[in-house]
Amino acid sequence: MSISIRAIRGFRDIGPDEAYRHRFIEDQARDHFSLYGYREVRLPILEPTELFARGIGEGTDIVEKEMYTFQDRNGTSLTLRPEGTASAMRAYLEGGWSAQGGIAKIFYHGPMFRYERPQKGRYRQFYQIGLEAIGGAGPLVDAEVITLLSRFFNKMGVDDVRILVNSLGCPSCRPVYRQALVDFLEGVEEDLCSNCVRRITVNPLRVLDCKVPSCREAMDGAPGMLSFLCADCREHFSKVQEVLEAAGVVSTVDPGIVRGLDYYSRTAFEAVCDRLGAQSAVAAGGRYDFLAAEMGGDAPGIGFALGVERLAMLMDWESRPSPSLDFFVAAATPASRTPVLRLAERLRAASKAVGIDLEEKSLKAQMRQAGKTGAARVIILGDDEMRSGTLQIRDFTTGNQETVTEKEFFRSFCGEPSPTKGES
Ligand code: HAM
After folding, report:
1. C-beta 310 within 6 A of ligand 1
2. Which helix (H) or strand (E) is 302 found in, with range?
């Protein structure tokens, strides 16, 4: 059909089957995260632009060219959230969540918006489930967050996700590394893509994860952050790895994990799967001990966000089909249409999903419709059945059709009590 108004590029409609999958993932995440004491929060989709500009960093791709920013009717600059961590920290500081003591363990889910070039697994509106532990600086928090994530993939039946970890240092050791990296990059400048040449001054660490082959080649022999870590950062990182190992979580140290957001320090990680192709990260996160300072606060934190569309692509849905109707009730004669309505309502009251014909079609057309709904059984009600208090039940999987009394039917399919002595 040719229509004149279409969805915005990179913004997708999520139909019933995919919405079911998202919902399934969200429900499983809610259950799983609560095992570790995380509680759900709901955060605004619109935030002051400054929150992301300061939090994520002016020199990042997200802030430079991917934000949906506009002015509201008051002339205030607002941005559709490109991610959730900056909002979570703002909410933590603004809502005084620290006053509850200990580590604030929260998670959220919902749409995020980035003006990226759309392709498979990369959209302009996409869905994340994010989790943050705010208020704890120690390595055990990092290890628990990564363990939780790794176990979540197992729970979802996705066992080929690899966890890559790195340390990005802290404000005392990172500047030394940054300088060593800049010195190296200046030496290979003519082999870098124009984007990376610009990054030398704006965000040199990002050159490390540039995918352009000539850049990858030029970066062979570049200094790595790990050999520049200060003693505290080194100790933190080795403790994280030690605890992960003790927890049985397999992770690989990858110095190329630099992350595209400025707020990270120390532990950074990505969960990747080769089956995703170019957009291989299904989840990513890290520690952000200095993000709060951008908002006038002081609180360490660590977390991750997982891409719901990407996880849905990795899961086996054949063994988890979206639920269909339990019954379709067909009216064999015009006189049985009202009794069909009553029967359907009685079944729904017993929590059975029931479809009926609302267009007063012939029995044959109703049977075709029943087949399309995926209902497991069709109940046929006609004049004979009404007279004798019976129903015809056709099982779509076996093709068997039988006549049962209404009472028997409700007993066997809706768990209604068996008759007491003397009752028929
Ligand atoms: P991120 O790496 O920007 O981190 O995004 C996390 C995940 O969201 C990615 O690994 C990917 O699965 C998914 N994702 C990102 N962009 C898109 C897109 N355009 N289309 C589809 N999926 C996408 C963050 O957002 C940080 N807030 C994570 C975090 C939480 N760090 C600490 N706490």
Report:
1. yes
2. strand 301-307
User: How many Å apart are CA 412 and CA 408, to the nearest integer?
Assistant: 6
Return the axis-axis angle of helices 174-187 and 194-202, rounded to nearest 10°: 150
Cα(351) to centroid(ligand 1), Å: 38
Which structure tokens are listed for 25? 């993932």
Span from the CA of 120 to the centroid of ligand 1 (angstroms): 15
Beta-carbon contacts of 308 under 8 Å, excluding residues fewer than 6 positions away, are: 22, 25, 26, 109, 126, 127, 128, 129
Which residue CA neighbors atom 21 of ligand 1 most closely?
Answer: 122
Same domain, 163 and 98: yes
The whole-model pTM stands at: 0.93
How far does residue 83's CA lie from ligand 1's centre (Å)?
7
Residue where a domain terminates, one of 260, 282, 314: 314
In tens, the pLDDT along 315-355 reads: 999 999 888 899 999 999 999 999 999 999 999 999 999 99
29 contact partners, CB below 8 Å, separation of at least 6: 107, 109, 129, 152, 306
Look up residue 69 and give its two tokens: 């920013």
Question: Which residue has its alpha carbon closest to ligand 1 atom 18?
Answer: 122
- From 289, 314, 339, the end of a domain falls on 314
The pLDDT of residue 101 is 78
- The CA 215 to ligand 1 mean position distance, Å, reads 24
Helical packing angle, 231-246 and 139-155, nearest 10°? 40
Residue 298 phi, psi dihedral angles, 5° rounding: -155, 105
Sign of CA dihedral 40, 42, 43, 46: positive
Query: For the chain, what is the largest distance between any 2 Cα atoms, rounded to a whole number of angstroms?
Result: 97
Hey, whose CA ends up nearest to atom 20 of ligand 1?
A: 122
Residue 154 lies in domain: 16-173+229-314
The distance of Cα 134 from the centroid of its chain, to the nearest Å, equals 20
Which of 22, 83, 163, 168 has most ligand 1 atoms within 8 Å of its beta carbon, as the pocket-test mutant?
A: 83
Q: Which atom of ligand 1 lies nearest, measured to the CA of 285?
A: 31
